Amino acid sequence: MATVPLTLAELSKAQAEAEGFQNGPTPLLNPANLYTQEKEGNPQPQVRGPIPYYPSKETPNLKLSTRDVSAEEANNFVILDSLFPSGAGAIGVPVVQSEITAVNTLVGHTISETADVTTLYAISLFMQSLGNGGAGDTLTVTINYSSPAGPTPLVITVVMHLDSANVVMETYPLLAAAGTAITMTSAYNGAYADPYTISAKLVEMP
Predict the structure, then answer these.
(1) What is the pLDDT, as a whole number, of residue 47?
(2) How would you classify the pairing of strands 119-130 and 110-114?
């Protein structure tokens, strides 16, 4: 009785079940299966397009894309994804939302970001003056954000004197409400432009 050759899809499914990947993408045929099919008179193509992870084309927790990757890579993504059931926040890595670095600048600077979710953010700020400003010259950094406890924006101000050499270093944790803006602005407090250095990063905490 003649046997009916299996299709590539059927062969891939059988191999996936045998290797324990029933719930993932069907794998590329391994060399042993390719050789067996060749001997049976059922040659199979050596290369075929990858099949996305089913039922989603992204892993459920970390949203890792499995498009246009091999079955082996997709399975590795699925395994990695399963280690973080709470999503990307469980990785424990702060995410930089906005940043600025300007050395010996003569103008004001601003960074701004809208909070995606109600959570803790942090602004780390570094400022340096060489002390060559006029007497009484100052620079003010203003941080604005909105707490979920109330709609009124909260304001933090940091003043640096430009007529003496000094360094200011501050970090502020901010509980910001989703959909509200977090901004940081530097500005001179008069009609002058003394050089100063500023570096700041706004991060979303894990």
Answers:
(1) 58
(2) unpaired
